[in-house]
Specification:
The chain is α/β, with parallel strands linked by helices. It is 36% helix and 36% strand. It is built from 3 helices and 5 strands; from the N terminus they run ββαβαβαβ. Strands 1-2-3-4-5 form a 5-stranded mixed β-sheet. Strand 1 and strand 2 form a beta hairpin. The longest helix has 16 residues.
Amino acid sequence: MTFNVEMQSRDGGTIRLALSGRLEAMGTQSFHSACRRLLSDVGRSDVVLDLRGLSYIDSGGIGALMVMHDQAQTEGRSLALANCSGDVIKVLKLLNLHRVLNLV
């Protein structure tokens, strides 16, 4: 299965990106490229990643989310993860990342 990132909506100071498929180590480069491309022309908008369509995440995918989280903080943006599916939320909680990342 492939991985996809697309702009779902832009509402004022917030941009919502929808992730779908499997976020695996092999796809992290395309994840970062797609996010940079989509976020490059929206100023300092806050970011919500809608994970409803994400069916799987591995350690490389978790690392990619953490890099994006750190980058958002450096740029003065907030980053939130919305609609985490059962398996994805299990992984985030197992790693105690639900205490670090903003889950909405």
